[in-house]
Request: fold
Amino acid sequence: MAHLLSLAPPHPGGATGGPGPIHGLDPRGRVLAAAAFAVVVTGLSSLPVLALAAVAALAMLPLSGLPPGPTLRRMVMMDGFILVMLVLLPFTTPGTPALILPGGLVATREGLRLAAEIALTANAVILMLMVLVGTLDPVRLGHALARLRLPLRLVHLLLFTVRYIEVLRAEYDRTRQAMRARAFRPGSNRHTWVSLGQLVGMMLVRALERSERILQAMKCRGFTGQIPLLDDLSFGAGDRLFGVLFALALGCLIAMEVALVRAA
Amino acid sequence: MHIVDGALANPVVIGGAVAAAGGIALGLRAMTMERIPAAGVLSAAFFVASLVHVPIGPSSVHLILNGMAGLVLGWAAFPALFVGLLLQAVFFGFGGVTVLGVNTFNIAMPAVIVGLVLGPLIRRGGAHAAIWGGVGGALAIALTTLCVAICLALSGDQFLAAAKLVFLAHIPVMAVEAVLTAAAVSLALRVKPELFHVMETTR
Reply:
């Protein structure tokens, strides 16, 4: 289910997709670990420690069973988004000049540092998130979030969204194919934008009509406003070990940061 | 338009998370169990629509359509767009973790504003509804870029240039979203006007 949402290759027989030791771990522990990692790493400021955090995330990649190529490509795609900001920062941050470009542009040492800090933080956090949580089946992610006391309505919304993304994606592809069969070729013009707008409008209309049928079907099966969460989450010895090791690693990062900041 | 981890000052990140949590709570209150299938399938539709690439000039942009989301979902746009951003971060690696709140607020608040201000005008129907839809599509993107720019500017003066650039770079996106939203609104009004009444309390 939800091929669009899975980085890992489909793995018949396994509930969670591809292989890798991380797959045996409890989803709740993985979500909490990724969140704790994000908070700690965002709080770090010294570059060597941040680099270590990024290396740690990279080192986890082989354990996850994610294909390294496509995963890293996605990370680089995100860097494309923030590239402009990273390139501008050295020139807009006041401080000691480090590099003077022809044309009088001055890059400061502080600016270069800040850009490196943001790049390392963003990549380390998102990679750890993809490794620990992105390897979950989206439905298991929903169940884990419910067990972590996220509001049930929000979890149901997530589960519905995950369930129908693939269905609507297929519908979108069919409609685009029908448009191609009628010689529609997208270009940078008003006709394209209006056509795509009508496509979006039609998708929303069909989504609403589909949801009416879903509700009818659910009521027909005795829907009373509660969707039971069927799952088999269990927090075992392996999860405790992972938790302790991960907490120790985060503690080391914090200790190194404190030591380096004090030394500076 | 995604902000990443590590770029913003802590007060901005915390403020964004609190504001997003409030918005999500309001949205969930409007979303009774009866309306969850509609909200869920529409949320999936907006997720798929955001993967659509639209050619513009020599390049292409991907849609955001938060104006349309606000018109259709009202306050429920908050949880719906939050779910979309969460899935994008976890499975696509776009955005970040600690900035999830900020990113949700930046995209969902403009959606809700457009829904509240222009929704009644569109529900009335008529010849002008499509024009108001277009205004809503452009307004939502403008407000979102403004929010992103404010978040960056609040985090330090060195981000001002990037903030201005973000706003300027999105002016063509506003034009595209305006035309698209106008077309989507006018089609939906003709085919199924109930689309704009999905989350209404009195029905």
Summary: The mean pLDDT of chain B is 92.
